[in-house]
Write a sequence for this structure.
């Protein structure tokens, strides 16, 4: 009886360790970091727009594919250090992705980046004002990289773009 109890206990213990390991692997396979160069999340959009150099790093333990997307935020994201600018409704902006060589990413590559574990990919988010955009206003863009393996896990960053009055430069 003692031998059977020991065998059952050993089997249950090994199953418990296997389940725990797969949960850890699942978490490790879904992690990523999304950063902006020099932590410059606030920029002004001149006539050429604002360019943010972003880096997506696969921090998981296996190769992962990420869908990269952008969305305009509804909540104000003005730089609160400048008290002369009042945060108001966000301005609409045109957002596009570019590779480091300044060419627009092909449509099929626009949203998908595959990275081996520990590997990073740099890309540029170009933000342009739309004609008629109110001057001295802010636009807020959220960039999100979602793993195709884990739809509820993503790396996000908010980019804030100030639209200056060109007559005041």
């Amino acid at each position: 009886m003692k031998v059977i109890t020991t065998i059952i206990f050993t089997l249950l213990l090994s199953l418990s360790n296997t389940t725990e390991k797969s949960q850890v692997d699942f978490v490790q396979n879904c992690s990523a970091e999304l950063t902006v160069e020099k932590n410059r999340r606030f920029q002004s959009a001149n006539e050429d727009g604002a360019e943010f150099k972003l880096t997506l790093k696969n921090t998981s333990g296996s190769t992962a594919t990420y869908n990269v997307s952008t969305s305009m935020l509804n909540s104000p994201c003005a730089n609160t250090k400048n008290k002369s600018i009042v945060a108001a409704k966000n301005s609409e902006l045109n957002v596009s992705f570019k590779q480091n060589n300044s060419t627009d990413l092909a449509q099929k590559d626009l949203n998908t980046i595959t990275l081996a574990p520990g590997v990073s990919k740099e890309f540029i988010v170009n933000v342009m004002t739309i004609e008629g955009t109110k001057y001295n206003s802010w636009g807020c863009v959220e960039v999100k990289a979602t793993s195709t393996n884990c739809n509820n896990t993503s790396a996000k960053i908010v980019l804030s773009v100030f639209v200056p009055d060109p007559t005041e430069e």
User: Anything to note?
Assistant: Residues 9-28 have pLDDT under 50 and may be disordered. The CA atoms of residues 105 and 119 lie 19 Å apart. The first strand starts at residue 32 and ends at 36.
